[in-house]
Amino acid sequence: MPILRFSSILALAAGLCTAQPVLAQSGDRDDILTDIILVTAATRSEAVDTAEPPHHIPLPADTVSLAARAAGGGAVGNGAVSGQFSYRGLFGERVLGRVNGQRFATGGPNAMDPPMHYAPSILVEVLEIARGVAPVSQGPSLAGAVNARLVETGFTRSDRVEASGYLAAQYRSADDSGAVGGRVGLATQDWRIGVIASREEGDDYRFADSRIAGGTLFERNLYGVHAGLKVAGGEVFAEYRRSETDPSGNPPFALDIVYFDTDFLQGGWRGELAPQVALEVKAGHVAVRHLMDNVTLRRPIPVQRRSTFASADTFTADARLRFGSPTRRIAFGADLEEADRFVRITDPTNANFHIDSQPDVEAQRIGGFVEARLGLGALEGEAGLRLDRTTQNAGVPTLGTAVPMGPRGLANAFIASAREASDTTLDAVMRLWLPGDVMTPRLTLARKTRVPSVLERFAWLPTEASYGLADGNIYVGNPALKPEVAWVAEAGMDLDSGGFTFRPTAFYRRVDDYIQGTPFDATPGVIDSTVEMVASMNGDSTPLMFRNVDAELYGLDADFSAMLGARIMLEGTASYVRGKRRDAADNLYRVPPLSARLAAMWHGQGWFTGAEVTAAAKQAKVSATNGETASVGYAVVNLFASVTIAPEVELDAGIENLFDRFYQPHLAGLNRVGASDVPVRQRLPGAGRGVWVRASLRF
C-alpha cells in the first residue's frame, strides 16, 4: 500500500495543516491502487530518536491542499473553507468526496461546502485517495475518490479502562489565523467512546504587501462524539458531529457564507458472521442549513442586495457482504441515497421579493455491486460491476409579489414542464497488477458514469449557481441532459528498490456526453429570449446552458522518493493533464497546468529540517466557452523544521513563500469583491511570505 506520511498536523483556521511527505510503500500489495495519507500525529509510529529519516514534511495546508499534493491532484481555490479537490483535470461532483465513508449532498447551490469543508485538517487522521478510478464498491463516481477519516478513539488490548488523546494548536501569520483541536476518549477491549472538537478562525490573508481585504476571513467550529461496542462477533458503532461555519468570505462568488449549520449522524454494525464471511450495514443522515449573502461582509448598492437560504438533507443506507479474506474475496453490496434540496433567493430589504430557484428538488438513487479480488497465478486483480437507478424531480417554485415579469414567465414555463427524470447507469472497473520484488506493473480499464446533478437539470432561473465553477458566468439548467460516460485506460508501474521509489502513471479518459456550459442559443449577446433578458438584468447578456458535449483527458503523473546517504531524503511529484472537447475546437475548463514539487530533508537526532519548491507552468490551453483566461507559471519556496521535545510532544515551524513571490494558481477562483487589493475578475493570488508554528501532544 503506497503511504504518504504527513507530520503531526494542526490546521489553522483557514484550514491550514501539514503538508505531504515522502511517499513510501508497505508490503501490503492488495491495496496498491489506493494512496493512504497519514495526517495527524495521533497515528504516527516512526521512531524520531533514531537515525531513520523523517517520513513527513510539516507545512501549513487545508485538507483539500493535502489531498492535492498527491500525484494528479490539484486544489480549486474558492475561498478559505470552500476549496475543491481536483483529480486529473476533473473536480466537483465528478470526484467522489466522503467524510468517514459517508456520502452527502452539499448544502449550497454553488458548493460553498464541498465534502472536505467538513473535514478540518486539524482533525483529519487519514486521507484515502483512489488512484485513477474509484472501485465500484465505493459508489458511483466519474473520476477518483477521496475519503477523509477523522481522529477517533479505538479499542484497547486489555479490559482496563484507558484514556487517550491528541491535542494540537497552530498559528499562521499570513492570515493571522489559529486553530486548536483534538480528541479525547476512554476505551477497553470491548467498548470505546470519544469526543472530538476543533476551532478555527482567521483574517484576510496577505500577499506581496497587500491584502485580500474583506474577502477571505473565516470561522469554523466542529464537535462530536463517537462510540463502539463489541457485540456478536462484530462492533455496533455510532457517531454524531455538528459543524458550524460562521461568516466566511468567498471572493470568487457573488455571495459569502453567513452560516453553515450541519449535523452528521451515522451508525451500524460490522463484523464476521462466520469465518471468511464479513458483513457491514450502516445508515446515516446529514442535514445542512445554510445562509449566504452579500451584505454581511460586503457593501453592495441597495438594488443588488441578496440573501439566499438553502437546505439539503441526505439519507443513506448501505449493506455489503464479503466472502473470503481481504486479499481473496468476492463482495456483494447494495446502497440507497436520497437527497432533498431547497434554495430560496431573497432581498433582505424587501419582504415581497423571494424566488425559489431550487424548489423541493429531490434525487433518489438505489444501486448494487459485485466486486472480486482474485489471483491468477502471479497476477493480482480486482474487478467489479455496479448498477444504479436514479430518479430526480423538482417541485413548484413560488415567487414574491415584487419579482418582475421575466422570472415569472420562466417559473410558469418550468411549472408546465415535466420536472422529472430517471436514469439507469452501469459502471465496470478492472484493475490488474503483477507484484514484483522491485517493480510492479499495473493496468486499469474502466467504464464510469455520472448522472447530471439536479442543478444541471432543474436550474430554471439563470444564476451563477454552478457547483463551484466560480467563473462569473450565468447558467441555466437543461432537463434533456444525458449521463456522462467515461471510458478509462491507465498504465503504470511502482518501482521500489529500498532507498528509491518511483511511481509513474499514464492515463486516458474519453468522456461521452460530458456536461458543460455552452452558449444558450445560436446568437450569443443578442437578447432575444426571456432567459437572456433575465440573465442580462443580472449582469451577463451571454448566459450558458448545461449541455452534453464530448471530451477527453489524458496525461502523465508520478511521484518519487530517494535516500541520499543515511540522513538526506528527496521526494516529490509531477503532474500533467490535457483536457479538451472532441466535438469543438475548445479546451475543458479549469484544467491545471504542468506542475511539480520537490522537497529535501536533513534528519538529525530527534529533529529534522528541510526545504520544498512547488512550481507550475503557464496554462494557455483554456476554455473559450467559459471565458477562461490564461495563467503564468511560478515557483514558490518553503522552509520547515520539526523537533521532538519529549516522546509525546512535537513542535513544528516554518516559513512559507520564503521569497514573497506573487503568484496566481491557475485553479484559483476569480475575485468578485471590489474593496480588495486584487482587481475584480482577476485570479486570487497565493499567500505571501509568512511564518507558522504548531505544537502537538499525544497521550
TrEMBL record:
Using the record, list the residue span of the signal peptide; answer none if the entry has no such feature: 1-24
Q: Which species is listed as the source? A: Alteraurantiacibacter palmitatis
Q: How does it sit in the membrane?
A: Multi-pass membrane protein
Q: Which UniProt keywords apply?
A: Cell outer membrane, Membrane, Receptor, Signal, TonB box, Transmembrane, Transmembrane beta strand, Transport
Note one Pfam family from the annotation. Answer: TonB_dep_Rec_b-barrel
Q: Please report the stretch or stretches of sequence annotated as the TonB-dependent receptor-like beta-barrel domain.
A: 235-658
Name the InterPro entries for this protein.
Beta-barrel_TonB, Beta-barrel_TonB_sf, TonB-dep_rcpt-like
Q: Which Gene3D superfamilies match?
A: TonB-dependent receptor, beta-barrel domain
Q: What is this protein called?
A: TonB-dependent receptor
